Amino acid sequence: MQARLPRELRDLIYDYIWDEDFLGLTSGYMSPAAGSSTYLWLKPHLRPRGGHSTKPIVINPGYVDLDTAREALEAYYRVSAYRKDAFLVRSPERIRSLLHDDVFNLGVLPTEHLRAMDLHLTQEQFQWDTPAKINEAMLSEAFAQLTKGIRRKKDFKLRIMITQTEIRLKQWDLLFGILVPFCHAFQAEGAQVSVSWGYTRSNWYSETIRCVYSLDEIIRVWTPYLDWEEKVIEFLDGQSEITDSRRKYRNEDEEEEEEEEEDVSYPHESNSDESDPDESDSDESDSDDSDRMSLVDDK
Question: pLDDT digit string (tens) for 6-24?
Fold first, then answer.
């Protein structure tokens, strides 16, 4: 095929091979394990299948020649861009892995061909009665990796989902301060960026997103002085899926006052709550924070 057909026709063949059914079989291959060149079968909010799966035949040099396997893999990045969560990142380490690891050992780097990415961020770790703190430096570094790593931003599809299990709004402005300039810069180079928020009861793979709110309009017009909270609270108050115990936005001011009083009263014990194993939420003790990108400041 390499000798008889020009690249344009070969690409048409690859595009035909990567149809919906075949893409369904391979979805998740390019969600590599953090810090290692392995490919796992992963899908968002589903438990990963154990072990490694076999490479699709069209990118397996045991069935096709090496040049064809490489071209077919390049086409995979292009054709699967429209499939949501085909390339899913849940932690900072995986951004670099997904962009730069040759997980199929074909000499094809994702950063040169990747056309879409889903980035799932979680805004919290469970801390009893203690609002989570945003690690702004870590998040800024993660987006810097994306800015540098995505070489062809025109028509690149970036979908960002911020999830919460306990809903606090005071951190949103901190997030907007980092997200807004990044999103605007990406869009200025022709990328398609969407940002949304979702509520989930835990961070397990099997847990579904219970409700979703688009943040695109806020991102588009945001300034530090924008009054966006009222509309968001109106939406949240209308969602029956959210239990009252998770609606922390209703008493955030009281939480801050209590925390300040504790710091003043017990300055020598300011870090004791964070190291006390009894302070974790027993209902969510087995949530898998390592597979979601945590924006929490590790102290």
Answer: 999 999 999 888 887 777 6
Q: Give yes or no for a contact between 38 and 30, defined as CB atoms under 8 angstroms apart.
A: no
Alpha helices (H) along 150-271: 170-188, 216-221, 229-237, 252-265
Kind of pairing between the strands at 157-164 and 192-199: parallel
CA 251 from chain centre, in angstroms, equals: 28
Whether residue 15 contacts residue 23, with contact meaning beta carbons closer than 8 Å, is answered with no
Report pLDDT digits (tens) over 153-165.
999 999 998 888 8
The residue to which tokens 């070969």 are assigned: 10
Which residues are registered as beta bridge partners of 193? 158
Q: What residues have CB less than 8 Å from 270, skipping those under 6 apart?
A: 263
Residue pair 146/95 in contact (Cβ under 8 Å)? The answer is yes
Mean pLDDT within 183-189: 95
Rounded (5°) CA angle 265-266-271: 140
DSSP state, residue 296: B
> What distance in Å separates the CA atoms of residue 132 and residue 123, rounded to the nearest whole number?
7
CA separation for the pair 279, 262 (Å, rounded): 15
Nearest residue to 110 via CA among 54, 17, 31:
31
Start-to-end CA span in the chain (Å): 57
Q: What number of other Cβ atoms are within 10 A of residue 152's Cβ?
A: 14
With tokens 């469970």, the residue in question is 126
pTM of the model: 0.74
Q: Give the three-state DSSP class for 119.
A: strand
| C-alpha span between 164 and 249 (Å, rounded) | 12
Q: What CA–CA distance (Å, rounded) separates 144 from 181?
A: 11
